[in-house]
Design goal:
Number of strands: 8
Helix content: 25-40%
Radius of gyration: 22 Å
Largest sheet: 3 strands, antiparallel
Strand content: 25-35%
Structural class: alpha+beta
Strand order of the largest sheet: 1-2-3
Shape: flat
Length: 183
């Protein structure tokens, strides 16, 4: 068997793009194959995402909002999201803001405390902490019990991630666009 140089495609975990990387295959006696993958192109690609994300606008999720009936802008999409959508020609009226998913995927995993959340069918904050470190927090929602301290205070989520989650929840591949007359 002969070894050689070839390429492989690795899927970027950040954007799902296929990144072509060099691969070297060498055969040695007693070993099926030795494969060396040069991942420098993938790291370079990921570094570009970090640069984009560092300068990208974000939505800030405040952990204390999990403990209030009026948290997370009383359950409404934040102005930063609406402004970002409008600036990017996205019709936010046809795309739901993915608050519960943002909380579950980004805020709760970042917390130093063990927090369980519950969805609530309401016109107010629709996702709240039910327990913090095993203690019931539902009375804190209405100010009838002291609020536990949650850390960190905030978590920032890049707008492109907010959009990705919104599209995923809506089952869309592309965001709904504003009519040209509104651009």
């Amino acid at each position: 068997m002969a070894g050689g140089e070839t390429t492989a495609e690795i899927t970027c975990p950040a954007c799902q793009a296929a990144v072509t990387v060099p691969v070297t295959v060498r055969y040695r006696p007693g070993v099926d194959a030795l494969v060396a993958v040069d991942t420098s192109r993938m790291w370079q690609h990921l570094a570009e995402h970090e640069t984009e994300m560092a300068s990208e606008p974000t939505v800030t999720l405040a952990s204390a909002c999990l403990l209030s009936k009026w948290g997370f802008n009383d359950g409404q999409a934040p102005e930063q999201w609406l402004d970002w959508c409008e600036a990017n020609g996205i019709d936010y009226n046809r795309l739901d803001y993915p608050l519960a998913r943002l909380v579950r995927d980004h805020l709760v995993p970042a917390l130093d405390q063990a927090v369980t959340v519950v969805d609530i069918g309401t016109s107010h904050n629709p996702i709240r902490a039910e327990t913090v470190d095993g203690a019931d927090t539902t009375e804190a929602w209405y100010g009838r019990a002291p609020e536990p301290t949650l850390t960190p205070d905030t978590v920032d989520v890049p707008m492109t991630e907010v959009l990705r989650l919104a599209l995923e929840e809506a089952g869309l591949a592309e965001p709904p666009r504003l009519p040209p007359s509104l651009l």
